[in-house]
Amino acid sequence: MAKKHKPTTMPSHRAEIGVDEAGRGCLAGPLMAAAVFLSEEFDTSGLRDSKLLSPKQREKIFDRIMAANAEGTALVGIGVANVQTIDKVNVLQGTMIAMHHAINAVILHPSSEKYALESHEILIDGNYFRSTEFTNVKTIVRGDELIDCIAAASIVAKVTRDKWMREIADKEFPQYGFKQHKGYATKQHREAILQHGTCGLHRTLFVRNVLNQQAQGA
Fold it and tell me: What are the backbone angles phi and psi of residue 140, rounded to the nearest 5°?
């Protein structure tokens, strides 16, 4: 298996809206998407794909992005597809819904007018995006490694979702260990499901598929 490319340089600056998601492959919890516009005034030092940063590094850069969002030198939008939506329309369509909400939140940001966002491209991490609302869209494989606004979106989505899983999901359902695994299909999580069954935060089809695969491999 080929090793994943790890860039040695910082993602390049692009004056567009970057979009990424977090939680797509989880067994439990919402999927969260973030859209981020970074002005030339924003300090991009240390900005990387969220997967290449430690939790402490992610949170530090997240705080900087959100402070800039309050000042208007970065514009941030967050969209959510909850478990009920994912179970109803599937995770791909849930991703599209969350991304649309995030993009619209940036466009409606109080500071958006000074940047003429309607003239900027929307850059999506990955190879798929479908919309009847937005036409100025470009998908970029490994965009979170290459473009700073997508890297920023990956950090915002990841930190926001992790915080939700720690502070809300784990407190409501402490028996599953959401604080540790954030809803991903870890051994700890799978064993907790076998012991306690599922809860209202579990994605029905995801859990069924993983447990079936586990049973077949036993």
Answer: -135, 115
Q: What pLDDT, in 10s, does the model give residues 24-74? A: 999 999 999 999 999 999 999 999 999 999 999 999 999 999 999 999 999
60 burial via Cβ count (<10 Å: 0-12, 13-18, 19+): middle
The CATH number corresponding to 17-217 among 3.30.420.10, 3.10.105.10, 3.40.1440.10, 2.40.30.170 equals 3.30.420.10
Residue pointed to by tokens 């599209």: 96
- Determine if residue 72 is left, alpha or beta; phi over 0 gives left, psi from -120 to 50 gives alpha, anything else beta: left
Q: Please answer whether residues 10 and 148 qualify as being in contact, where contact means their C-beta atoms are separated by less than 8 angstroms.
A: yes
Residue 116 and residue 75 in contact, taking contact as beta carbons nearer than 8 Å: no
Pair of tokens at residue 101: 């909400």
